[in-house]
Please model this.
Amino acid sequence: MKTGVQKLFEAAEQVQQITQELIAKEKHMAIANTEAAKQVAEMEVLRSAAEIKTKEVQESKETAEILVKQVNEEKAIAEEELSAAEVILKEAEEAVKVKKKNILCRVTLNCSNLLC
Model:
């Protein structure tokens, strides 16, 4: 009977010891859960900030693409106008050459008339 009672006391001590260990582990788990919840919240804030930044970058990209398109359109128009201006300039240069030849001919005729 002594051994049976002694075993009951030992079992009761073991249960009490295991209960104390369980309480300590529950405290550690609660702390770990709190810390994990904080980290999840921080990660959620960072994820939200990253989403906002991604949207801003996408909007900037779209704006830049629109500007590039506009610049390319304006460039094409300017190149057409430049091409037309070059044609007009060449025509004007030719006209000046002809005019110079005519003036030179007149001056030459006038000089030869003076000499005769």
Notes: DSSP finds one helix and no strands in the chain. The first helix runs from residue 2 to 115.
